[in-house]
Amino acid sequence: MLPTVNLRPPFNITRASHIVLHVADLKRSRDFYTNIVGLVVTEETATECHLRGLSEACHHSLVLVQTRGEATCKRIGFRVFFEEDLDAADAYFKERGLPAEWVEVPHQGRTLHVSDPIGTKLELCAQMKTCERLYLQRELFKGAHAQRIDHFQIFAPDCHALCDFYSQLGFRNSEYLAHGDKVLGAFMYRKGTCLDLAIVENAGPKMHHFAYIIPESHLIFTACDLAGNYGYADSVERGPGRHGPGGMLFVYLRDPDGHRVELCDGHYQTIDIEVEPVRWDAASLSTNVRWGLPAVERWYFEATPFEDTPTIPPAKKPQPTTLEAYVQKQVAAKAAAR
Amino acid sequence: MLPTVNLRPPFNITRASHIVLHVADLKRSRDFYTNIVGLVVTEETATECHLRGLSEACHHSLVLVQTRGEATCKRIGFRVFFEEDLDAADAYFKERGLPAEWVEVPHQGRTLHVSDPIGTKLELCAQMKTCERLYLQRELFKGAHAQRIDHFQIFAPDCHALCDFYSQLGFRNSEYLAHGDKVLGAFMYRKGTCLDLAIVENAGPKMHHFAYIIPESHLIFTACDLAGNYGYADSVERGPGRHGPGGMLFVYLRDPDGHRVELCDGHYQTIDIEVEPVRWDAASLSTNVRWGLPAVERWYFEATPFEDTPTIPPAKKPQPTTLEAYVQKQVAAKAAAR
Amino acid sequence: MLPTVNLRPPFNITRASHIVLHVADLKRSRDFYTNIVGLVVTEETATECHLRGLSEACHHSLVLVQTRGEATCKRIGFRVFFEEDLDAADAYFKERGLPAEWVEVPHQGRTLHVSDPIGTKLELCAQMKTCERLYLQRELFKGAHAQRIDHFQIFAPDCHALCDFYSQLGFRNSEYLAHGDKVLGAFMYRKGTCLDLAIVENAGPKMHHFAYIIPESHLIFTACDLAGNYGYADSVERGPGRHGPGGMLFVYLRDPDGHRVELCDGHYQTIDIEVEPVRWDAASLSTNVRWGLPAVERWYFEATPFEDTPTIPPAKKPQPTTLEAYVQKQVAAKAAAR
Amino acid sequence: MLPTVNLRPPFNITRASHIVLHVADLKRSRDFYTNIVGLVVTEETATECHLRGLSEACHHSLVLVQTRGEATCKRIGFRVFFEEDLDAADAYFKERGLPAEWVEVPHQGRTLHVSDPIGTKLELCAQMKTCERLYLQRELFKGAHAQRIDHFQIFAPDCHALCDFYSQLGFRNSEYLAHGDKVLGAFMYRKGTCLDLAIVENAGPKMHHFAYIIPESHLIFTACDLAGNYGYADSVERGPGRHGPGGMLFVYLRDPDGHRVELCDGHYQTIDIEVEPVRWDAASLSTNVRWGLPAVERWYFEATPFEDTPTIPPAKKPQPTTLEAYVQKQVAAKAAAR
Predict the structure, then answer these.
(1) A53, closest residue in chain D (CA to CA)
(2) With the C-alpha atoms ordered D109, D112, D113, D114, is the resulting torsion angle positive or negative?
(3) Pick from C138, C225, C229: CB nearest A225
(4) Among B52, B43, B68, which Cα is nearest to B17's?
C-alpha cells in the first residue's frame, strides 16, 4: 500500500534542518522560543532572529522573520550531504517542471529553493556556518532544554501521492496511518530516527508543526510550567501525552503567531532496511490510543500556510474524533440516559 | 474567614495513614494497585489485601476488601501519636455525641472507629505492625513506584463547618479555595506537608480521592503508560497536569471499581505557624490555573460513598467549569462566529 | 544501646532551620550557592547574604557573613513551635549550666542562643519573616533547584553522650551506626523525615555538613556539571553516590571556604513511634555499602569549626576505610601478587 | 593530524550492531544483562543467549556464548546497508590480504567475518531477523532500561594507523584525544551520532567496552542500585560521571566475566560534513575534565581479548593519571607537608 522507496535516490537529503517563519513581533517570539522551548539565539538583527537547539553545531534550526503581513511559513529546510547533491536536486526538480531556484541565504552555503508537487516550499543546502554545541553549558540552559530540531509535519491533500514523491527522494516510512487501503498519514525519515517529515492528509500544503527533541521526559512539564508562567497557558494546545504512532511523549505549544511547535523525547533508531513500517489503523485512533483525551479540533485542522501558496482541499475532509466531538457525544449519551 | 485552628488539640493526630475500600474483584484491584500504582502486597487473604507504598514501614496504607455489594469506602484512617491519644479521642467524640467505638483490626494496635459530624467514617490507631521499607529494593519496583500515602480528599456539604471541626483537632490550612467570603475547599495538614485531608464542598460525605506520593515526575508518565498497557487507558481521568492549589504535578486514575487515586509529586514543607495559608479565588479556577484543559465533569462530581452512609447535598450545587462546559461554550462561540 | 528518647520533651523543637557561616568573599560564596546549589537570595547587604531554598516560605535557611578571620560556623539554627517553647528552652539550658542568651537577630522573632554540652552553637527561634515560596517560579530556577534545608551533621567526641542529650530534647533516631556496643553515628530527627541532625563521633564540636533537598535525582548531575562549569570541579568531594544509612542519593560539595554542603533527594517519612531505628554495623561500612568508591580521607576528617569554640578529640580516633587506604591496600596487594 | 576520511567509502557500514561474548556461566550473565542493564532475551538455548535493547527491532545486539575456556570476545558486529555492500566488503578485505570469510550465523542474513589490520574480529551483515520493539511495553522493563547498542571501544597499538583504516571505510571523527601531534583516542561514527567505534591507543586488539544508551539520566543511578542489590557493587567500576570527550553521562560496569559495559545517555547528532571534530588535549585529561575522581587503573588497562588473537603492545605504554597515581601523589604531598 505504501509507495515504493527509492533506496538509491537521485540526491542525498540527510535530515530535517531548519524552518523559516514569519512572526508579527520578533522580540516576543524570540522570548517564547528561548524562555519556554529553550533555544538559544545564535544571531539577531532588527528583522531576523536565528536560533538553534542546545546540541546543534549548525548556525540555525529556526529562523524568525519579522513581518507586517500574514504570519506564514517561508520555508522548511533540509540538508543534503554533498554540494553536488544540490546540483542533482536542481536538475531533478527542473526535469519534473517543479520550481528550483538558486538563492543567497546568510550563514548557509549554496542554497536551492524548490517546491514539491503540492507547493510545499523547501530549502536545501549542504553547508551551514558552524557554532559551538552548548549542550553541556548548563549555566546557559533555559526553557525545556530543546536539543535539536527533529521533524516537520505537513498537510497534503493527497497523502499517498506526496508520500510517493518523497519516497522517490529516499524517504522511508517508519510508521503510517491508514484507513483500509488509504494512507492518511506517513512518518518518513532520512536521518535514521523515527521521522524527518510527517505527511498528513488535509488541506495543504500547510505546516502543521515542527518538533524539537527534549532530552528527558520531565522537561515536558517544564515547558508547560514555563508556558503558564510566561502567559502562554492557553498555548499548551495538546498534551502532555504519549503518541500512538512513534510512541513519543509530547506536548504541543502554539507560539505567539499560532505556529505550532512540538516538544518530544527521543525515540527509536531506524536505519536497517529489513524493518517493516508499523501500520496504524485510522479507526483505532479516533481517541488517543494509549491514554488521555482526544486532541482539540484546532489541533487537527489549524496549520500555518506557506508564503504565497494556495492550499488544496483533500478529496474527503478528515473526520478525526476531536475532543469536541468526543465530549458532545458523551454529553448526549448522558442526557439520553436520564 | 478560615476557622480558628486549635494549636493545642485535645489529642494528637499525626498523619493520614490508610484507607479501606470495598472492591468487586480482589485480584483485579490488587493487580491495578501493584502493576500501575506500584504498591506492594504486605499480606493477602481470599477476602482482603493489605498494601503499602515502597517507603512505608507500616503494614498497610491501602486495604482492599472483597464485597458482593456496593464498592464503598469503609474507612479513612489516621494515626495518633500515643496510645493515650486514642482514649482522649474516644472521650472527645462521645462528648459531642459522635459515634466512637473500639474495634479489633488485624495488624493494628487498639483501634477506634469514629465519625465526624457529617458521617465521614474515620479509623484511628496509634500502632501498626511494622515491615521493612522497600524503597531501595529496586528489583521489586513496579508501576509508578508509589512511595507513601499522602492525603485524602472528601466532599462535605458545608466546607466551612467541617473545616472548623478539623481545625479543632489541630488540622491547619496550607491553602484554600474561596469564593468571596465562602470557603469552598480547604487543604488541611497535620504532618508538616501540604495536606493530610482536603475538604471540598459538594454532596457528602464522600471520598473523592486518596493520594500517593511518587518520587520523581517522570513516574507520572509511567503510571499513564502502564494504565494504557494494562487496559485502563480510559481510567486516566485527569492529567497529567499541574495543580493550582498545592502546585503538585498530578494524574488521577480510577481503579476498577471507580475509586479515584491520585499520584502526585512531593511538595513543600509546612510546620511553621507564622506562615499564612495561601488563598485561591474559586472564580480564577474556572479553568486550570496553570496550563491544560479543565477537568471532566465526573472528576468534579463523582466520588465514593462511605459504607452505609447517607450523603447530604450542599446548599448550592458547585458550578465548576468542567471540560464539557468549556468545550460546549467554545463550540457555541465558533458557531456564532460563522 | 541507643539512649532513651523523651517523647514528651521540655520544649518543642520542630526542625532544622538555618545555618550561619563565615565566608571570606561574600559575592563569591553567594554565587556558589545560587549558581550551583540553586538557592535564592532573599536579602543582601555589604556584609551579609540571606538565602533560602525554592520551596521555603521563611526568610533564610543559609546566612553568609563576610569575615576577615577564620571561616567558621557561627550557629546552626532550629525552629521551635511556640514562643513559649523558647522560654522553656532558656530555663532548660540554664538549669543545666549551659549557655543561654537572648539576642536580636534580623528577620527572626525572639531568638535564643544556646550551646549543647560539647559547645555546639545553636540558635532557636519560633518565628521568622515569611516570603513567597518560589518552587513553581521555574523562570527563576538556577543550579540544582535546592528546595529546602534538611539537616546538619556535626562531629562530637562522644557520640552516645551527645545523642543522649538530644534524645532528652525529643530527637529520635531513624538509623544509627554502631561498632559492637558503641554508637558511632546517629541520625536524629524531629520533623518526621529521616533526620534533622546527624551526630558522628570525631573531634568536635564541628559542623561536618549541612544538606539541602533536591527534588529529582537528575539534579545531582546538574550540581556536578555546574560545579565543573563554574570552576569548582575539585569541590565535588564525594559522590554522586547512594548512602548506606538513610539511603539517599547524594553529592557533597565544598564551598569556596571549604564548608561542606550536601545535596540529596527526599527520603522516607518517620513520625510513628513503633518503628525501630535501623542499625548499621560500622565494620560493614568500611567501603560504601551499596556501590561506588569509599570517601576520601578529608571527607571523614575535615569539618568547619564553630566560632571561638575549642574542639575535643574522641577517645579513639575513627578509622574509616578511606579512599586513600583502600587504594593503597589494593596497590600493595597487586605488587605482592607480582 | 587526523587521517583523511573517505566520504565515498567502498561499501556502506551503517552502524555498530552487535557483540558476541564468551561467558563462563550463561545463566549468570543473562541475569546480569537483564536485571541490571535491562536487556531482554530474544532467544535462548543451552549454550547461547541472544539479547536486545528495549527499542531495538533487530534480533540481537548482544550474544552470550557459553564457554569452558577463556571469556574472550568472539566478534564485534557492524551492519551494512545493502546485501551488495557485503560483496564489496569481501573484495575489499581480500584485496588487502585481510581475512574475509563467509559464514552462517543464525538469525542473520549472509554474514561476512573479516579482521582489520591489527586483528580485531568483525562481523558484517545486511539483514537480521526482526522483532517487536518493546520500548513502550513498560510492564516488561527491568534494570536500567537499556534502549539500544551505541558503540564499541577497542584498544589498538597504533591509534592513528587504525583510525586511518576505518577512515577509509567512511568512519568520521566526532571528537579525538591527542598529545601534541599524536592521536591517542578517536571517536568514530557512521550512524550520525557521536560514535560507533572508539579507538584508544593501548595493547590491542582488545575490546575495552561496549555501550548501551539509557533514555534518562536517573537510570544511571538505577543501574548502580541494582548492581549493588544483585551483588555486583564492586562491578561498578567507574562513575557515575560525565565524560570529557563526547560529554555523556556514564557508568561502567564489569559483567560476571569482567567484560565491560557502559551505560550512557544519548548525545548529540553528527551527520553534517562541515562540522569539525573536537580536539581534546590528552594532558588535560590526566584527571577527569569535568568533575569527579580519575578512573581506576584497571579501567585504563584491562580489556577483553578477542578469541585466538594475539595482542600487540603500543610503542609507548599509556600513562594516564589513574586514581591510584592520583591518590598516592596526594598522600605523598600531605606527608611532605607535615
Answers:
(1) D268
(2) negative
(3) C138
(4) B52
